[in-house]
Amino acid sequence: MQLAALDTLRLVRTDLHEGEHGDWWRVELDGAGAKTGELVGFVQFVRETREVGFGVLASYRGRGFAHRALALLIDELAPASGRLEFVAFTRRDNAAAQAVLRTNGFRLADGPRGDADPSWLRLARSVGPHESAPGPD
Questions:
Q1: Which of 15, 68, 106, 137 gives 20 to 30 Å between its CA and that of 98?
Q2: Is 2 a domain residue?
Q3: Is 104 helix (H, G, I), strand (E, B) or coil?
Q4: What is the DSSP code string of 66-96?
Q5: For residue 120, what is the domain's CATH number?
């Protein structure tokens, strides 16, 4: 699940759903290849709840892009001082999303989901200054 040497990513702030459901970034290929700027997916941050979200286009799944995109978002939002707890919710049957979250340092956490639906898991990760996401196993 490692990115190919030329497949690096960048986040580009976007006004997708501006004012709705938090802040959004496009995840794009960034490198010397002809595909630079090609859309890989999106990441999201909801400031009020500190919730992160991510999605990768089907053609890029299973290659480490979701892990890297979430790591870039965490790096982008890490506080200059103090700590910030990020939360994420995923369905219990979504093993791929759980793996992406866990390889980015998220762990199962207590706490409610707005709809209290038992088919969802809550994961959280606390981040301090200059802490980056761990790498995939």
A1: 15
A2: no
A3: coil
A4: HHHHHHHHHHHH--SSS-EEEEEEEETT-HH
A5: 3.40.630.30
Q: What is the DSSP letter of 67?
A: H
Instruction: Report the alpha-carbon distance of residue 41 to residue 106 in Å, rounded.
Output: 20
Count: domains in the chain:
1
pTM of the model: 0.83
Say if 137 falls within a structural domain.
no
Is 134 inside any structural domain?
A: no
The Cα–Cα gap between 27 and 31 comes to 13
How many degrees, rounded to 5, is the angle at CA 131 between CA 49 and CA 7? 95
For 22-35, what is each residue's pLDDT tens digit?
A: 888 889 988 766 68
Torsions phi, psi of 42, nearest 5?
A: -140, 150
What amino acid occupies position 85? E
